[in-house]
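User: Fold this one for me? It's AI-2E family transporter.
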Amino acid sequence: MADEDAGSEEKVAQTSSASADASPDGRSAPAVAEPSAADDPGSPTWALPRGTVVLLTIAGIVVAVLGIKSIGSIVGPVFLGLIMTVAVAPVPGWLRRKGWPKWTAFLATVLLVYGIILGLFGSVIYCIARLATILPQYSDKFNDLIDDVQQALSDHGIGQDKVNDMLSHVDAGKVFDVVGDVVSSTANAASALILVLTVLLFMAVDSINSDERFAVLKRVRPDVAHAFDTFASGTRNYLVVSTVFGLIVAVFDTGALWLMGIPLPLLWGLLSFITNYIPNIGFVLGVIPPAILALLDGGWMLALWVIVIYSVINFVIQSVIQPKFVGDSVGLTTTVTFLSLIFWAWVIGPLGALLAIPLTLLCKSLLLDIDPSTRWTDVLISSGRPTTDEVEEARRHNEQQARIREEAQQAHRAGDGGEDTVSS
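Assistant: Here's what I get for AI-2E family transporter.
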């Protein structure tokens, strides 16, 4: 009796199951495929091996760099215009808060930027032109210097024939011809100046409504907005610090040259101020012209004193005093700064040396800081220690990524287990 009841219940259960699987019109319902681990959006899938992805990324970077290098004469002036626009971006807002009309604040900003650019280019051209006009006056002293070197080498046992062979190709006229070629190349600088001024005008027009655009960007892509803000603030800090301490260095250099009787001390002080914007080797470029004049005008000892005084002033002000007041305004290690100087000078020419730090800050902000998964690189390229907030943010990001990977692995294992059960 009990067996009959059990058999009846089993038949009823089978009938109910069949009814549930049947469609309203009596036909069997189609089978529904269960999602597999491959369909899980959380599971990490790679279309290519990671090594291949890395190689393709490196190849893409090389192609991009070579492309930029091929149009470096355009990229350099355009980026200079961008840097100047970023530098004076707070000026229109400050003028409008003072009660200036919008168009007046815009016009004043454009004139300010034009004045800075024209002053920068004009100062460089003036320094080169003055050096070219002064050096021919020392032609006789240059020949006397060559004779002194020849005599000193002969006194130290170097044969006269070898000395004559080494110095036969040294000609003061050729040296001054090179300076003349440098002066003639200012035509290229003039064309670049026109491009910079044109780009600045268009960028200034577009920046009128930049506040509204940036507010929208903050709402839509806060990470991108933060990257741009980091680049802008870092660039402005770098320019302010370089300007203030460049003026201090220029004043001391001018005074030292005046006391030593070097010709045109104001001119070389101006040159030291301009070259201060070039990191690491800027003071070396600034000391070469006055050292040459000191060598021709007063001999080896005076030239040595010029080099020593320039080096001491640069070291004390930029390596001892400046960090105590402002710290590291750039946020890059010395090695990264020097390598960026070489790299950007190779990519876009001499203007790249002047813009090396802002260009590196832009790449760092848009390629590294914008992505939480790549912010760990700041530990390697930043000069300062990471703050507590940065360490905490990195820890939270790593924990979140670990949870995502663990959940993906669990889902993948669960999917494999379900497939094994079905197949068995």
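One thing worth pointing out: Residues 71-220 form one domain.
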